[in-house]
Amino acid sequence: MNTPRGVRRTDTKLSDGRELIYYDPADTPVRVPLEDTRGLPAPQPQVELRTDPLTGDVITYATHRNTRTYLPPADQCPLCASKPGNPTEIPDHDYNVAVFENRFPSFAGPGRTEVVCFTSDHNQSFTKLSQGQARLVVDTWADRTAELGARDDVELVFPFENRGREIGVTLSHPHGQIYAYPFLPPRMRNLMTQARKHQEVAGSNLFADVLAAERKEGTRVVAENGNWTAFVPEAARWPVEVHLYPHRQVFGIDELSVGERDDFAELYLDVLNRFDGLYGEPLPYIAAWHQAPVRIDRELGYLHLELLSIRRAKDKIKYLAGSESGMGAFISDTRPEDVAETLRKVGS
User: Fold this and answer.
1) 7-184 against 187-347: fold identical
2) Is 290 annotated as a binding residue?
3) What is the CATH architecture assignment of 7-184?
4) Does 173 carry a binding-site annotation?
């Protein structure tokens, strides 16, 4: 294992055999994990992959997920640290960051799905994390990326966070997930197709050129620092959409330098606070890491994070209706330049 410097990793197992990993700052006391006393039966996920002959897309059927935990009361949250009378997925009484195999996985056999708990504080959010805690999450993502990307049955490592009931969140505790796909998802296949065409015509990396153009043009840049730029893409699909790019081409989070990780944590927290300041309340969002594929077209990739919200006004949601759902053709109610200007003003 190549755990990031400054981080202590502690591996253990839950009562049903699933892996649980604690990530703590290296200067904290050595953790001696408590035993999971729940006596859970071994997981028996029902997963089937089918390929759509019309599109080539792989569709996953995971029928056991229909019975997963849904919006439990705070005192029964399965992602909080365990307390007397409420044993949870995390047996210890406190933790910094914890990662465990999903009890209701979307993939079984090939691939893997994990839950990443950003903090033991149920009432916290990523937006309100300290920069040090956010940085610990970045190191956690990096470690998981390296380990999952080394598996023979994984084609893409996809860390992401869903926030807000409007997005479809079923657990309100601050957490994200990691999907280690056993196939290349449609979005990434499309991106790599475009990147390959651009490389053949321009002789350069598509994502690097997009970043350079946005930084030069400037009107859609929301914020930046020494190693990262956050901008609203020229052809944004979502009402509020911001992409965060490192200034250096890397393929995965695990390849980021210490300084790049520091600067990402700083800029990401800045952008998240701008999101929440947009309408004066927590904004529902999806944060989606785009890492390079593990094998196929890896050289064409460029690590970046895409942050998006479906809220098109304070009291209005953007639904994927006929054109978007039926034809995949987005029609937006917001103009990228206006969104960027508004977000810049939120932070001023």
Assistant:
1) yes
2) no
3) 2-Layer Sandwich (3.30)
4) yes
Q: Are 340 and 220 in contact (CB under 8 A)?
A: yes
* Both structure tokens of 278: 């947009």
Per-residue pLDDT of 307-317, as tens digits, reads 999 999 999 99
Strand partners, 7: 25
Domain boundaries, the chain: 7-184, 187-347
Give the pLDDT score at 71. Answer: 87
In 77-228, which ranges are continuous DSSP H helix?
Answer: 131-149, 186-202, 206-217
What is the model's pLDDT at position 67?
82
Catalytic, out of 175, 198, 243, 304: 175
Tell me the CA distances in angstroms from 337 to 218, 233, 241, 308, 330, one per residue in order: 10, 9, 11, 15, 17
> By the 8 A CB rule, do 23 and 96 touch?
yes
Architecture of domain 187-347: 2-Layer Sandwich (3.30)
Q: Is 198 flagged in the annotation as binding?
A: no
What local confidence, expressed as pLDDT, does residue 315 receive?
93
Residue 122 is labelled as binding a ligand:
yes
CA–CA separation, 80 and 75 (whole Å): 9
Return d(Cα 239, Cα 318) in angstroms, integer. Answer: 7
175 is a catalytic site residue: yes
Yes or no: say if 58 and 160 are a contact pair by the CB < 8 Å rule: no
Contact 134, 269 (CB under 8 A): yes
Straight-line distance from the first to the last Cα atom of the chain, in angstroms, rounded to the nearest whole number: 43
- What distance in Å separates the CA atoms of residue 230 and residue 220, rounded to the nearest whole number? 9
Neighbours of 121 (CB within 10 A): 15
Collect the ranges in the chain with pLDDT lower than 50.
none
Residue with tokens 């202590």: 8
